[in-house]
Specification:
This protein is α/β, with parallel strands linked by helices. It is 44% helix and 9% strand. The strands form two sheets. The chain has a six-stranded parallel β-sheet, sandwiched between helices. A two-stranded antiparallel ribbon has the order 5-6.
Length: 382
């Protein structure tokens, strides 16, 4: 059985068996991370995977309409998200569950979207995370426009670490084939926008392999637009942290955009309506399973004596509590009142929306008045 072909020039700080390897450029980026910080990353990845497992089960039980698993991509998400500053802005696609967890978004609010009762249950202004975007690649335009605005607002290159702001946008390999993403790269490059394009190359755009989308590494797309690029082992949480930290710092200090290709693997289905066994082999899945990001960091911490059986037991109990809460609160979700569709459309009052709301309520009242009144059922003794 052969190892996956992940290409040349891949930044790696932890080998698949958990050994720390030196890197002349990125070692300094992780030098300040102590054992507590690494245990926190391990915890984030474990809980993100537990969220995935529970959400998938809830969909199978009919409690969610759909779910997009991120199984196997925890290293890329947790590592990059841990490198963010509080003022940075995140533009996710629809499976960045680990990123949202790091940013403090309530996991129940994530599932309200997949329950079909809203378009995203969290406040972007409070969390620094835009709502999930279901249209492939469109969030790259939103992120680039936001980043251009950040620069014009004077929030880049001031030298104040609590003021200077970066934007990061997450997307998959399939999005690199979309026009929106390529247009975003044009605007980001020519405007020196403070945005990090973080591509999680999980090898499959639904059933289309990366080899059918590009003849060269996806990171080379950035080079074509004049954007600095880097390829990183997406299953190495330390390397993802280091690469993202450098790219985000470049953005905040006025250095412009960066294109990061995190080479990882989607170990589960594209969504719960997908059957990956129809287009990929068990051998391929097993070869990537040996590169599991959680196992890798756990092996490193265990070998260093920094992760005990008690630590693992406590983490398992925390995961159990998370699972129980998700099951309880998702099942308690109810559909909102239909007229709520007119709320939060614009930041300020809008005459057109107000008129549509009045018309809807009037029609709803008329339908209710015209509905026949149910009498006693046949056979009633009343």
């Amino acid at each position: 059985m052969t190892e996956p072909d992940i290409g040349p020039e891949l930044v790696q700080l932890l080998t698949p068996d958990g050994r720390r390897v030196a890197h002349p450029r990125y070692d300094e980026r992780v030098a300040h991370l102590d054992a507590a910080a690494l245990r926190a990353m391990h915890r984030d990845m474990v809980l993100a995977r537990r969220f995935d497992t529970e959400a998938t089960a809830l969909q199978r039980q009919g409690e969610l309409a759909l779910f997009a698993p991120a199984l196997g991509q925890e290293g890329a998400q947790i590592g990059s998200a841990r490198a963010l500053a509080p003022q940075d802005m995140v533009f996710p696609s629809y499976r960045e569950h680990g990123v949202l967890q790091v940013r403090g978004v309530d996991p129940v609010d994530v599932l309200s979207l997949f329950r079909g009762i809203d378009y995203g249950g969290w406040d972007p202004t409070a969390t620094g995370v835009h709502l999930y975007t279901l249209v492939i690649g469109s969030q790259t335009l939103h992120a680039t426009g936001y980043a251009m605005g950040v620069a014009r607002d004077g929030l880049v290159g001031t030298g104040d670490p609590e003021r200077d702001t970066a934007v990061i946008v997450y997307f998959g390999d399939g999005a690199t084939s979309q026009g929106d993403t390529n247009e975003s790269l044009v605007f980001a490059a020519v405007n020196q926008a403070p945005v990090v394009f973080f591509c999680q190359n999980n090898q499959w755009a639904i059933s289309e392999p990366t080899a059918r989308q590009s003849r060269v590494p996806l990171a080379d797309r950035g080079k074509g637009f004049g954007i600095p690029t880097v390829r990183v082992d997406g299953n190495d949480v330390l390397a993802c942290y280091a690469v993202a930290a450098e790219a985000l710092e470049r953005a905040r200090t006025g250095g412009g955009p960066t294109f990061v290709e995190a080479v990882t693997y989607r170990m589960g289905a594209h969504t719960t309506s997908d059957d990956p066994s129809r287009y990929r082999t068990a051998e391929e899945e097993e070869s990537w399973r040996r590169r599991d990001p959680i196992d890798r960091l756990r092996a490193h911490l265990t070998a260093a004596g920094e992760l005990s059986d008690d630590d693992l037991a406590a983490l398992e109990a925390e995961g159990d509590a998370l699972g129980e809460r998700l099951r309880r609160e998702v099942r308690a979700m109810t559909a909102p009142a239909p007229e709520s569709m007119f709320e939060h459309v614009y930041a300020t009052a809008h005459a057109g929306v107000a008129r549509e709301r009045r018309e809807y309520l009037a029609e709803a009242a008329a339908r209710t008045a015209a509905a026949p009144v149910a009498g006693p059922s046949q056979g009633s003794t009343r």
